[in-house]
Amino acid sequence: MGGNDKEQYAMLWSYVEEIKRSNPDTTVKIKYKQKGLKNAIEELLPGCEHRFCVMHLYKNFKGAHKGLALKNILWKAARATRVVDFEKVMTELKDRDIPAFDWYKVHLGEKTCSCRRWELSGIPCAHAISGLYYCGYMPEDYVDECYKKMTYFKSYTHLMNTLHGSDMWPKSQMEPLLPPLAEVLPGRPKLHNRKKDKDEAKKKVKESDGKQKLSKVGVIMHCSICGKRDHNKKRVS
């Protein structure tokens, strides 16, 4: 297939149907050196698994991590047919070279990154932006729809009527809702001492004879003889 990319992508599905008609049970392999084929395959052939060439991955890999040791580990991981074997190779890679292991996995089609910042915020993280620029895409096109101007306008296209006050609400015929029952927690109950204002009257304590007087808690005592603080007349020698 040749010519303009957009025109040929539009014909890709028809091309596949023609191959299936003329050559049933055949496998179609498409080689394309330009960028953007992955998104077209996901759109036109959603049931097909997209895989990457290990040789191309190694060419991107060997610039920062030279030597045969990491190359052999990479190929061992590529040839692993079980998840257990793959995890063993990843552990070996981590023990040998932590920077080579500590990579983030970015999926542009699903708008996800293993650091999870993209999923939580809806804005591409630094790892996703690096991958987008590498593939020739603009990060602005991968921002969640909720941040876009048109979404903001759409949210206010419908008329929002104001509500009346609670005294003008219609009376419902449903049974009134009750608050949940207070659950008694196990253990000793906590004391909730309220902080009092400076001008608030102090708490009174009841004596054995039934009379009440102000509590002396927090009051600075003065001696009635010498007038000094922190002791009374009983302690004057």
From TrEMBL:
Instruction: Name one molecular function that GO assigns to this entry.
Output: zinc ion binding
Q: Where is the composition biased (Basic and acidic residues)?
A: 196-212
* Keywords annotated in UniProt: Metal-binding, Zinc, Zinc-finger
Q: Which domain of life is it from?
A: Eukaryota
Write down the species. Buddleja alternifolia
What PROSITE patterns does the database record attribute to this sequence? Answer: ZF_SWIM (PS50966)
Tell me the InterPro entries matching this sequence: Znf_PMZ, Znf_SWIM
Q: Pfam families annotated for this entry?
A: SWIM
Show the stretches that span the lipid bilayer: none
Spell out the protein name for this chain.
SWIM-type domain-containing protein
Give the residue ranges for region: Disordered.
185-213
Which intervals hold domain SWIM-type?
104-136
